[in-house]
Amino acid sequence: MNSFTIKDLESLTGIKAHTIRIWEQRYNVMRPKRKDTNHRVYDNGDLKHIMRIAYLYRHGYKISKIAMMTDEQIKQLSLEEGGQKGSHLHQVYINQLVEAMIDFDQTKFEKIFHNVLLRMGFEQTILKVIYPYMERIGLLWLVDCVIPAQEHFAANIIRKKLMVAIDGLDLPKEGDEKFLLFLPEGEFHEVPLLFTHYMLKKHGCAVVNFGANVPLEDLSFYTERKQVDHIYTHIISNFPQRALDNFVRDLGRLFPGIPVTISGPQIVRITPPLPDNVTLLMSMEEVLQYVRRKVVL
Description:
Layout: H1 6-13, H2 17-27, E1 33-34, E2 40-41, H3 44-58, H4 63-67, H5 71-84, H6 86-102, H7 106-120, H8 122-142, H9 148-167, E3 178-181, H10 191-202, E4 206-209, H11 216-223, E5 230-234, H12 241-254, E6 260-263, E7 278-280, H13 284-291
Parallel strand pairs: 3-4, 3-5, 5-6, 6-7
Antiparallel strand pairs: 1-2
Helix pairs in contact: 3-5, 3-6, 5-6, 6-7, 6-8, 7-8, 9-10
């Protein structure tokens, strides 16, 4: 079972640690354990409980009213509140996915995913729920709240959903643009790459996906034998600066006649100038323009 400090709860809920202490003392909303140093320590159940309380508090419920509810009433009301206010429903789903991940509850995780899918469709599920959920997981990593097994547990479920969705799309026609997708050596975060694969195929492009941890020599071997109109990759891992810049330069050197597109949170660190054939997608809007085959201005 994970343990969290009050500063962790502040990071994950947006509720100041000072406010959480007041809620505990005045309204008895939680009963944290204490370390030998007398510092508060919270467990998985505490995290889920305060996430629900924070959600209700942000949507107009007074803490004095919330404090009078049972844990089950708080849980149920957070679900009902999300259902009544569509603009807040995404956050409810994200919180539920985090809870399921923390508990390694595969049945719950897949049920939530299925419910979102029925309401929103696949593309919007990924954009409005799964990507923000992954950002939340990133924050959980930053405060050491998620162990690798939990992250792999959740990512593998999402990965399987994306692969099924990709397989369900019609095959492209002969003559359509041909894309080669890959992740560089040392990069294993496949979900954004798979979503790009899904979107490109949905919009009529032929896609070959080499997957994660791919040496550039393998790409070079393929492009010497097969037609490739575009190369795309996505970088999440925090590579050393020199390795990152060398990787981008190698893309220009090895594939001078093929447009190469890179996205991901780490591309802001790439040192200019870029090779002539390399383009960076700096925002989700630009990524969506790219995968929908619209010109990025």
